[in-house]
Amino acid sequence: MGTCACKAPISNLLLHPSITTSSKPLNSKTLSSSSSSKRRLFLLSIPVSTTLLLFPIINLPPFSIALPEFDPVTSQEKEASASMSQRVLKAIELLDKGREFQALGDFTQALNYFSQVVSDYKDFAFSDYARVGRALALYEVGNREEAISEMEDVSISLKGYPEVHAALAAALYVDKNAPLLAENQFAIATLLDPHYTDLTYVRETKHWPPSLVSSLRHFITLS
């Protein structure tokens, strides 16, 4: 029997290039390349959440989206607001004019300005202060009945406003012969502002008309 051709010496099998892992010797460069490949494979296998923990997030510039401008106030509302502002300014201007003429002692002109505020701007709360000025002017020009009626009405809407209570006290005492009502009104006025016991104060600081100052003098002195 001949020798089988499929059998080869073990030494030849070890040297055959298809059997051996490499025909070239391993060196440091080869090892480094192999390590890099393994590292890349490792990183690719890590979940994204873990990667974010391992590596810091790069600060990127903020990303903004240009949105269309939104104005919550309509054009009609803006026009209404502008119109209201103009009305307020005009009313205040008239009120100041009335007080200027009152300070100058021109109660006829003061009455005109105060009356204009009362008639045209009565929807504003501060128009009640124009009513006080109007009542004082009416008292001076001789319309005392209307002046007292105005004072009584304003003393309710402006309850706690000392000037109107003091003026009403003086008028009630002299023109209505009502000392008890006058005392009640004056008690309210002086409790809020004791200055109304001083005739100089009402004449020079509050610019009361001479007729009302005289009535207050009669009330204080009980004459």
Give a short summary of the structure:
With 223 residues, the protein is an all-alpha fold. 68% of the residues lie in helices and 0% in strands.
Explain this structure.
The chain is an all-alpha fold. The chain has eleven helices and no strands. The chain has a domain at 94-221: Tetratricopeptide repeat domain (Serine Threonine Protein Phosphatase 5, Tetratricopeptide repeat). The protein has helices at residues 10-15, 28-45, 48-54, 75-104, 107-120, 127-141, 144-157, 162-175, 179-192, 199-205, 210-221. Helix 6 (127-141) runs antiparallel to helix 7 and helix 7 (144-157) packs antiparallel against helix 8. Keywords: Membrane, Transmembrane, Transmembrane helix.
Strand % is: under 5%
The low-confidence runs, each spanning 5 or more residues with pLDDT under 50, are 1-23
Instruction: Let me know the number of strands.
Output: 0
The CATH topology of the domain at 94-221 corresponds to Serine Threonine Protein Phosphatase 5, Tetratricopeptide repeat
User: Whole-Å distance between the termini?
Assistant: 167 Å
Q: Could you give a short account of the major beta sheet?
A: none
For the record, the CATH architecture of the domain at 94-221 stands as Alpha Horseshoe
Q: Quote the average pLDDT.
A: 81
Shape: elongated
Briefly, what CATH class of the domain at 94-221? Mainly Alpha
Q: Could you tell me the radius of gyration in angstroms?
A: 50 Å
Give the ordered list of helices and strands.
HHHHHHHHHHH
CATH superfamily of the domain at 94-221: Tetratricopeptide repeat domain
Count up the helices. 11
Class computed from helices, strands and strand pairing:
mainly alpha
Portion of residues within helices: 55-70%
